[in-house]
DNA sequence: GATGAATGAGTCTTCATTCAT
DNA sequence: TATGAATGAAGACTCATTCAT
């Protein structure tokens, strides 16, 4: 006769449906692109009726913010993990970051691809605030490199770290998320080589070695 | 009453229709994404009937290879120009390449974006052979850097050049084509800084300076 | 622990719910047509759940008879008022009736329009018995004119009075309820002129002047 | 090998479809109200596909103007007929008009009901210009009565004729189009009596007999 | 009883593709 | 051969009604 289980159950029912729908969308996204997924498909996969879908969400697009939000949590956790596992030297830190980020992208390729492409197809439906939050996380990753300021040989260490992170991410997006397409495909570098070389490139860039320029 | 002129005329007419349709598609692509363009729209813009469209092309997707082909010609010309304008030192060569490629992408952002996204949305409709041709062009760009072998301080100069080019392209795709989106947006590097820094990074990477690593 | 108060309370509560729903429907009808009002809208406005609605009423249409009934009470009161305020001469009586009826329609245009249109859109859901009751009220209005039998110059005074009332009502429906639509709109008669002229017409018709007929 | 038949055929095909759809709507309207008719119903009845419907008309509502237009032509013809068949005396003229108009409404009750109700349900979709045209036709009918100015005993003959016509139309709308509903139902006047009495009323009103008032 | 979540039939609408002319 | 009318499958969305809690 306790209230809690009942309330819990009530909350859960509603929430369960929403979760089922989000999960169904995630599943569908592994096979096809958002645009090609119909509401009927999602609801069928979720085991609910279309009406139920429209009771929760205004339309298919309304699901995306939740996807972004869920992803944000995942991303935050990952960054936290990186922040807890710092390395003693810059070079080690860079190597570790490249390795872990590669793995992170590989393991979440489906969701990453979706969000990456959606952002490009529907820039308007992304709430600006969310984007800013990503910016915060990029900063935090950059800050991890900044833990080794004396090893960074650069006019502006901050800029260098930001740039290194940005280059790394751009590189991994193409190499990991779209490895079977141009430009990744056109480039004869294997994934393993890519990991090694991008590490090397970041290290070269960040450390003293830029004396050569002028 | 000679056959030739008539056939000629027919071929020409046929060709004209095809060109008109391709042009119409290109025009439409400036305003909306391929997916959202209907056959009716294309034919209306081209001034031909839908029936005529289906006489020439199996479906809308069948237009894309032609678009890729046209782009291939453009790309080839650009690479040729790069091949003709080589620099004396590796560092100069890198700086020149970064500058020109940035400009090339900026000037053709529309078509680049379309092809880049289409490739990601419809990987299946890209004929493999076309991709290989791209691969050839990537190779040629890489080869330009290889003109300075003694300046490249690397186990495998070829790998290093390929990698440098691939990183450059990935970087420019995000920074130039999607500058208002994550990750470009989340990164605080300006476009000018990006040009400068990516040059620096490639130079650091390619030249001797990797002594620091170990 | 007496039953009465509880039952009373229950009945009251039940009745309250019903009243709330009827009131909600009335409110909605001021803004949109019955057809376009959803059960969800009504219940939301009434502050009850849809389930509760369906416990009370078979469906949305089942609300209408209650609306008609409420209106019947209003109408009855108005007729009673007319019956209490009779005039000495037929002409005066007609003028008074026209004036008051015009005002009555103007003041209740919303509900009149609704019932008038609903009756036309859903003739089947009007319980016949209710209609007969209207018939009774029409008769009572007609009877008011019949209070001046000697002034009515007609083969059948009853027929003449019934006819006069019917013509008056038809005229006011179009002129008052739908004054911005055809036929009212197409007719260049102003509302004031209409009041005056319909009075005149009824008087002409009812009084001696039908000598012309044969 | 004449062009005409072919062109004719082409024009006809397109036109035929449109006519079929309009006819189908008309047929459906005999059984149910516009609002309750689905596009699928109309196209099925017309023997064409839904796609064909949407090629001609933006949506269901887009059919209405055509219905109005067709009706306008019919109405115009009827008015012309009335204009050609004038009577020698006002009384005869009134009687003739009442008789013919009653018949006209009876024969076109379906379409009249539809237009009358639609105007009330969707006042916004009626192009104002069309309404004005009706106004012209009302004027023409009124003008027929005005052919007997010396028989009309009224301050303003024009006003009297307009009023008479408006009252007649209002009366017939309720009595003919909605004879089984309030107020027509509530009034004990038969249709035959109504014809006779409305004639009488108009005659009384228009002719000298208004001396009695004061 | 009351609640409101879930259902699913029904409607509108689009658009790729076919086919009569 | 070119045209554009016709087709119909497919998808989005609504809402009256039911039913588990």
Characterize the structure shown.
The structure is a homotetramer of 214-residue chains. With 214 residues, chain A is mostly helical. The first copy, chain A, folds into two domains: 3-57, Orthogonal Bundle (Arc Repressor Mutant, subunit A); 64-212, Tetracycline Repressor, domain 2 (Orthogonal Bundle). Helix content of chain A is 71%, strand content 0%. In chain A, α5 (90-107) packs antiparallel against α9 (191-206). Residues 1-10 and 210-214 of chain A have low confidence and may be disordered. Chains in contact: A-B, C-D. Chains A and B meet through α6, α7, α8 and α9 of A and α6, α7, α8 and α9 of B. Chain A binds a DNA duplex (21 and 21 nucleotides) through α1 and α3.
The residue-averaged pLDDT of chain A reads 87
Number of strands of chain A: 0
- The CATH architecture of the largest domain in chain A can be given as Orthogonal Bundle
Q: What quaternary form is this?
A: homotetramer
Contiguous low-pLDDT stretches of chain A (5 residues minimum) are 1-10, 210-214
Number of helices of chain A: 9
Radius of gyration of chain A, whole Å: 21 Å
Q: Choose one word for the global shape of chain A.
A: elongated
Number of domains of chain A: 2
Do you know the CATH topology of the largest domain in chain A? Tetracycline Repressor, domain 2
Q: Largest chain-chain contact?
A: A-B, 57 and 59 residues
Distance between the termini of chain A: 79 Å
Biggest sheet of chain A, in brief?
Answer: none
**SSE string of chain A:** HHHHHHHHH
CATH level-1 class of the largest domain in chain A: Mainly Alpha
The proportion of residues forming helix of chain A, as a percent range, comes to: over 70%
Which structural class is indicated by helix and strand composition of chain A? mainly alpha
Strand content of chain A: under 5%
